[in-house]
Design brief:
Blueprint: H1 7-20, H2 33-40, H3 44-56, E1 60-63, E2 67-70, E3 76-78, H4 85-91, E4 96-104, E5 107-114, E6 117-126, H5 131-134, H6 144-150, E7 155-166, H7 172-175, E8 182-192, E9 197-206, E10 210-216, E11 221-227
Antiparallel strand pairs: 1-2, 3-11, 4-5, 5-6, 6-9, 7-8, 8-9, 10-11
Length: 232
């Protein structure tokens, strides 16, 4: 009976079991296709059929020119709160690394890595009265909101606009995607109690790592960032 099961399906079943058993973990790269086809003793065409099965099940994602990866672990970011990207994602157990690309003339430029993968490029224009006070903050370890609070700023509210876009040429090397890749563009303005602007943020978020989801209830609407079928 087993001989009647197509080879590609047996391979897909074996790889799926290895993914579920943790042999290949979320975000891990699978061996190269030629290596896999050789280890299973099948042609590349048969191996690709197996990978298509796994892709249809949402277990893997394939990135042109980069390889095949186990689908990253679920990540969600609520955009109906004043919490930062980093605070929400770290609370869910994800490793978030911040790389400061530059800080001058009141503009803070950062790259956010989610579980080791570049995911968000963020530029923050800080209100000039607070620039000297937050200039010494280590943004690899603390959020901008926390630094502003330390400087005496009281955050009252924020207005955010999120639209789809395409990755610009100058940001492609930072996010390790080809120019023109799908992205979300988040533009957020944060206000103090006196309604004066504290921060103007612009975040470029990879569209193949994150998606927007909504949870609706009778009394509220909760919007979240979450991992796509592929991932302040």
């Amino acid at each position: 009976m087993a001989d009647r099961v197509p080879a590609y399906r047996r391979i897909a079943t074996d790889l799926a079991e290895k993914i579920r058993d943790g042999v290949y973990r979320p975000g891990d790269a699978l061996p190269a296709q030629r290596e896999l086809s050789a280890s299973y003793g099948v042609t590349l065409m048969t191996l690709r059929q197996a990978l298509q099965e796994l892709r249809d099940q949402g277990l893997i994602v394939q990135q042109a020119g980069r390889g095949t990866y186990v689908t990253p672990a679920h990540a969600a970011y609520r955009v109906d709160t004043l919490r930062s990207f980093v605070e929400d994602l770290r609370e869910q157990g994800h490793e978030v690394t911040t790389v400061v690309l530059g800080f001058g003339d009141g503009i803070l430029e950062r790259l956010r890595l989610l579980d080791g993968q570049p995911a968000i490029h963020q530029t923050s224009r800080i209100a000039m009265p607070f620039v000297p006070a937050v200039a010494s903050a280590d943004f690899r370890k603390t959020s901008l909101y926390a630094a502003l609070a330390e400087a005496g700023a009281t955050i009252a509210r924020a207005s955010e606009r999120i639209v789809p876009g395409l990755l610009a040429d100058e940001l492609a090397p930072f996010l390790e995607r080809p120019a023109g890749s799908p992205v979300f563009v988040s533009e957020r303005t944060t206000f103090g109690l006196d309604e004066k602007t504290l921060v103007e943020d612009r975040a470029i978020i990879l569209g193949d790592l994150l998606e927007i989801r909504a949870e609706r209830a009778a009394t509220r609407l909760s919007l979240q960032w979450g991992s796509s079928v592929d991932l302040g």
